[in-house]
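Hi W.,

Here's what went into the run:
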Amino acid sequence: MTQPPLPPQMPPPEPLDESERALALALRNLPVGAPPPELDARILGAARRAVHLSPPRKRNNQRWIVGIGTAASALLAIGLFMKSHGPGQDAMYTPPTESTAPVSAADNAPAAAAAPSAAKKEQAEPQAAADMVAPTGNAESAQSGMPAETPAPQQEAARARQPVETYQGIAAKPAPQAFPNPVARETVAPPPPSPPPPRVQYAPAPPAPVVLEESAPMAASAPPASPAPPKPAADERQEHKAEQDVAGRRDAAAYAMPAPASQVMGGAARDQPASSKTTSNALKSNASVSGEILSDSANATEASKDKSLDRVDVDDGRFKQAKEDKGTVLPPIDDDARLSQARWIERIRARVDAADGDGARESLRRFHARYPGTIIPTDLRPLLH
Amino acid sequence: MAATSRTLSRMDAEPTDESLMLAYGRGDVGAFETLYARHRGGLFRYMVRHLRQQSLAEECFQDVWSRLIAARERYRPDARFTTWLYQIASNRLTDHWRAQGRHGSFVEDGAERAEREPDPSTPDRELSEFEQRRQLQLALEELPPDQREAVLLRLDQELGLEEIAQITGVGRETVKSRLRYAMDKLRARLGP
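Here's what came out:
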């Protein structure tokens, strides 16, 4: 038994003097009975009961502690649940809403075609902002020249060649926002075998162009293709031949520089007056390749200026490119349905690029039948008509 | 002196009252049993000499221990256990006197009893030892309760003035005065 702290030192009791001691002795000799055994038993029993009754108080304290601990655990669990299922989690999927918003604007584009150019700027700015976000994966693959994503650079190059003033004019331009660079999307997240949920499809959307566009001049500074002497565009045949040359060189540079110049230029170029847009579009589309290609393309565009200025044909550039990509072998149309939405769209574009107009229309028709709620990209929309 | 030596030897060999009380406060019933065995006789004598009735003394004696049991977890060894125990007993007696409303009845009772008893100081009679004890008891009964309390704590429990002052709740000089008056009365009663 450990000794408790002793009580404070008190002065020792004064010893009894002789008279006190005599009285004390006489007092102790007085007959005084002792407490009866029953009284002793009662007192000792009360002492034991008191000790046995005290543990419940401790148990109450323990219960209080256990209650607090349980409440804290429950609070923690609720917090984790809220965090995992709460608004914070939904915020991760907000990009779809952001990316789909311009799509709806693109859908309403025909109606807004007559609107003033200020409205067009408002529509173009989001796309420019979306174009500025790009994952580096595509650029890396482009710089490394890996042909795994072969259709992507071709597609981007085809878009770069595509006249900006095409079907439905400027209002159709925001369309790429609906499916901003699906190739880049697939580079970030490889496509699952089955179509993933729409949120996941649209989530990582916009990125690709920026890095590509930044790396484009570097890649263009050392193009593998040798420059061809510019040919004067005298007649239509020569013009067509020049276009083929340009396209051939562009294909060679496509792997190293898939970024479309039209996206690099952003919406500012789209707001230029229509009279200068054709020329600027040609410049824009060719600026992404190289200066030489640019000049070739400009010459070719100049040659076809009389036809393209007053003609709105979204498939013009695409089918021209298709002539160049004729050698590409595409899988049957039935296989397109197995692809995800984004890849399916890319496949349709690849068919367009490969001059498989019927196949592209049929595939797009099936796509539209399967995904009636999905907005068809503007560049493919004419195929439905 | 003998009591003091007994106390010192007990402190060397056995746990102190304070440690026993603390142990009981932690739930050690055996410590209480030891403590009770040490103080039951002295406390019971104290009660009987104050109250003069065995049944009343037993009742107050049990109440004192019940109060001690109830206060076991609040006990702090700020003073000696004996001081604390007899402080509880003193409070219980005070409650008793207040409930009875006859604080000075003991003086009257003692005086009445002394008048009824034959005068022990008769020179014709040689007082036996028994007569001396009886005279002492009568003298104690004649004392006012405050003086009786002080003299009992001093003679029977051999407590010092400071401890008696703590128990009774008065100053040391008051205790000293009470003791002086009480001793004078006892000596006068018992004779030379």
